[in-house]
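Is this the right way to post structure tokens for a design question? Let me know if I should format differently. Anyway, here goes:
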């Protein structure tokens, strides 16, 4: 029972969050490293040679000209929110011991209710899948963020009734 386990856990401070992920560039760089830990790899042909189309945030394979984005196949894929907003949301949700309502998240990340609710649902789903130990590639990016924040699985409300 998570509630009985009172421990002083090594937290991840807001200061650290902003130091590591305080700009969109830092978030993009982190996502790039999680997505392609051994360098860019074309999802179509596997080539590692690419050029980046900065204006559209796309990476184009030099070999087959396939274009891919940093956020494709991640939970950030169909969103217009900046990565930094997502990272802050992941931080708030994973660090909250009692769970965070979509309404509270809305206020904290400065978006309207619907996007806040969607962000929360996606993150909670990924956290659940992570605990189900299903290696879903679409959730890997979020896992990377969560892992880097040293999330204790017992802090995640969605996992209470599993197993
Ligand atoms: Zn290619």
């Amino acid at each position: 029972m998570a509630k009985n386990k009172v421990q002083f856990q090594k937290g991840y401070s807001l200061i650290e969050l902003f130091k590591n992920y305080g700009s969109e560039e830092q978030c993009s760089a982190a996502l790039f490293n999680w997505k392609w830990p051994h360098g860019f790899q074309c999802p179509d042909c596997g080539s590692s040679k690419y050029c980046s189309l900065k204006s559209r945030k796309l990476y184009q394979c030099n070999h087959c000209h396939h274009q891919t984005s940093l956020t494709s196949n991640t939970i950030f894929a169909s969103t217009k929110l900046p990565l930094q907003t997502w990272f802050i949301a992941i931080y708030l949700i994973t660090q909250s011991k009692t769970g965070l309502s979509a309404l509270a998240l809305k206020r904290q990340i400065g978006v309207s209710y619907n996007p806040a609710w969607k962000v929360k649902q996606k993150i909670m789903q990924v956290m659940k899948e992570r605990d189900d130990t299903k290696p879903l590639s679409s959730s890997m990016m979020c896992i990377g963020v969560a892992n880097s924040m040293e999330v204790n699985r017992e802090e995640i409300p969605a996992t209470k009734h599993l197993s």
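Format looks fine. Someone answered above. Worth noting: The longest strand covers residues 50-53. The beta strands are 50-53, 58-61, 67-69.
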